[in-house]
Write a structure and sequence with these properties.
single chain; 190 residues; mainly alpha; flat
Length: 190
Amino acid sequence: MTTTEPPAAKTGEDAACCGHAHGHGPGSGAEAPETPRERVNRRWNEILQETRVTQTGVQILFGFLLSVAFTPTFRQLETLDRGIYVTTVVLGAAATASLIAPVSIHRFLSGQRMKDEVVEAAGRLMMCGMVLLALTIGCTLLLILRFVVPGVLAEVLVGTVMLWFGLCWYALPLRLRRRADRRSRTARDA
């Protein structure tokens, strides 16, 4: 299960399968085909890098949220704002759990020859954690902007920012994925 496993020897079938499945056929100018073991190792390393980035952000945000309750201004918050705060802290805790979970899963299952399952579970937890992180950021913005900006402008600004998150974090990747799938199907049909 370690990421330092030596790559398995490529067989003609593995290379052809992997090259075809990812649109990396010979002479396409793309990356060389990879074996299933190389693929799972690459995916695991990518998840580790993504986890490092998101863990830092969620931990800083969560630490900030925890400190808010101990400020003198916190006592002045209205009931709705306290509800938003509690929701934000719970979302932040859930995001932290989801984004740190791949480390725990890896530690518990290390050496069990379950890397495919670990990578799949870690990928799903990362996606869940990203949704929770976006919601935490949105609620944090709402809490701060309700305190700073008068009227419904706070909600409008938060809605705009959340729309931007949705476009950057979800819509754009899905669009790029669909485009790659279409390109792959076109190349396969040709």
